[in-house]
Design goal:
homodimer, about 190 residues, mainly alpha, Arc Repressor Mutant, subunit A, Tetracycline Repressor, domain 2, about 0% strand, DNA-binding
DNA sequence: CCTAATCTGGTACGTTCGTTCCAATCTAAG
DNA sequence: CTTAGATTGGAACGAACGTACCAGATTAGG
């Protein structure tokens, strides 16, 4: 045993996992192949097969990497304001929509692969913990479910689409229902989806 | 123009779409190919390519078909009791888990294909309308989001796992928060997941 | 330095895929 | 019955895939 894991090897590993995300964004799960990932990373095919023997290794690593970033985003929510979180959520679901879809595709894949269960779990737990630590949230466990549903709704239907509308929806979800008896607020600043 | 669309043709069409769901359940989105679907339906490859020229046609038709069934399930919720709905939800997310995952895979695909937007929309609208028609639901729009999140949580983590626990969670979600200030109820009858 | 392990880039095999083509068969309208 | 259009089953082509292999380059430990 001598070289173990070289620094340069780790750089290539990370480059490949980042490439997986980009390929995923562009063409979905089925388009993730050793060749496509290697090409996206600007590396020869052998580099992909050497560091990630099977396609599953590639996807597993990508999910774990993406989850880390998401966990950090949720952690930042814990310390920031609601408006900050609304803006982060807007960026994630509208500006970087392809990236968000890619992450959900990986999470859905985690339902099938037991090796990914852990990653999906930590993603979920990070959201719950962030909500529990956020002041004024009446029922964090329920709010976590609703927030999850809100993200999906934004990805599917595009609404709410503005930062302001998202913040209003968050207020509706996180806070208790004392002033608004019903309805998610419609988009306030920008119009509806296509 | 004479035969237009024959009855036998429609039978084969439906058989192929059902086969898509079964293939999807077994191996995920990437395993849906003309050959796999035709083989699953017990038909020659040409039958799949004749009725559904592209893979997208196959997936589009399958999502539309699956959505119809789901819309009918939600409609039944409107008229039944909460316990009935809890049982239906339990069957969907635990007994027929693979089928539920397959449907979400198709819904996720709908985020990428504009032709599927309509199907995803009708699925969503059916859930909201069912909740609006259900007596005692304080905020149906919010509840729809939460219910969506609950389904995903059950698919990812397996909890809540018993019919009783699901019904309790539903009561927490649908009704107002006047007796329980926090927490989703833990599983009551069966244990937690792995 | 030396040696063993990691890393690199390229090639090739066998499989599976979407897609196309075609001759034969079936069906319904005139 | 006749005939045009719908349907059927089989075969084949080119492309892309996972995977395996290998000879050379690089690197780290002794």
């Amino acid at each position: 045993m001598s070289a173990a894991i070289t620094a340069k090897g780790q750089v290539r590993r990370d480059a490949l996992l980042d490439a997986v995300i980009r390929v995923l964004e562009r063409g979905g799960l089925c388009s993730v192949t050793h060749r496509a990932v290697a090409n996206e990373a600007g590396l020869p095919l052998s580099a992909a097969t050497y560091y990630f023997a099977t396609l599953d290794d590639l996807l597993t690593g990508a999910l774990r990497r993406a989850t880390e970033g998401q966990v950090q985003l949720f952690a930042r929510l814990r310390d920031g304001t609601l408006a900050d979180f609304a803006e982060a959520l807007h960026r994630w679901t509208h500006v970087d929509r392809a990236s968000a879809i890619a992450q959900y595709e990986l999470l859905l894949l985690a339902m099938r692969r037991d090796g990914l269960r852990e990653a999906a779990d930590s993603w979920y737990r990070a959201l719950e913990e962030a909500l529990e630590a956020t002041a004024g949230v009446a029922r964090p466990q329920v709010a976590a479910l609703t927030l999850d549903g809100l993200v999906l709704r934004m990805l599917w239907r595009g609404e709410p689409s503005s930062v302001g509308a998202i913040e209003a929806a968050l207020r509706e979800i996180l806070g208790d229902a004392h002033d608004r008896p019903d309805r998610l607020p419609p988009s306030t600043t920008s119009g509806s989806s296509a």
